[in-house]
Amino acid sequence: MIDLAKVVLGRHAHDPGRVAALPSHVMAASKPPIALDRSSIPFTPGLYENDTLPICTACATANCARAYSWIKTQVDTVVQPAMVPAFFAACLSIPNTPAAIGATDGAVMLDILDMAQSTGYDVGQPSPLYPTVHAIDFGDRMALADAILRYGAANIGIALAMADQRMQVWDIYTPADAGDPTPGSWGLHDTFIWDYDGLDDTSLVRIGTWGYWQQATWRWVRKAVEEAYRLNWPQLDPAPGGA
Asked: Between the N and C ends of the chain, which has fewer C-beta atoms within 10 Å?
């Protein structure tokens, strides 16, 4: 486990009205599986300087593209590390320097996603990537599982508690000496769910962030998530038009 006291967050609070105006994720007719194990896929989340810069919004978006590529084509989409802070800076119309990026303290998820959707996310490939963004009802566990299954990941905005820094598995029940368990007492973060070992409250999901996999329970997800999106990347899909 990495030292969570030494990583950087960077999600700004969202506008619920703006989220409500998005098209909604529609589940497939068939239900997602009870367990989704992707441990055999050699996908490791990219760090992309999120240990020193508040660019989790740009990092999570890039990692969601890679997750989508893995499940659609069984190969990775290479993201050049320097392109992630560059894209973040372009979204906020600021200089691409550590000082300027650090001074922002992060960004609103939809500002980053809207920019990617409208002008493309240049990750260092021959052409920028253009996602389509749909809001997920994050209170519906099956909807999250469906998005994870079909689009590689569910992009989630979470409110982290100080107690989460001391927890190997993020859960709603924390030791008394772990710190403040209130969501948001540590700060706001953007990340993604990749797979899960069940759909019960105590079943575990794998969250990709800061260059590694963090485990959490579904009941923690229900408490911590404040916004969620599924990203479709037609350019990365071998089927015409994408998923």
From this structure: N
Give bridge partners of residue 188 from the DSSP assignment: 159
Share of the chain above pLDDT 90, in %: 93
DSSP character for 29?
Answer: S
Q: Read off the pLDDT band of 227 (50, 70, 90).
A: very high
Q: Which of 177, 131, 110, 141 is nearest to 36 (CA)?
A: 141
**Do the bridges between strand 187-196 and strand 204-209 make them parallel or antiparallel, or are there none, so unpaired?**
antiparallel
State residue 218's pLDDT score: 98
At the topology level of CATH, where does 8-19+44-235 sit?
A: Cathepsin B; Chain A (3.90.70)
CB 199: neighbour CB atoms within 10 A?
A: 18
Residue 16 CB contacts under 8 Å (≥ 6 apart), including other chains? none
CA atoms within 13 A on the CB side of 90: 17
Q: What's the pTM?
A: 0.96
In tens, the pLDDT along 29-44 reads 999 999 999 999 999 9
Domain ranges of the chain: 8-19+44-235
Nearest Cα to 195, choosing from 204, 187, 186?
Answer: 204
Separation CA 232–CA 65 (nearest Å): 8
Dihedral in degrees, nearest 10, Cα atoms 162, 210, 106, 191: -80
Question: Which tokens is 150 given?
Answer: 């079909």
d(CA 35, CA 21): 32
Beta bridge partners of 81: none
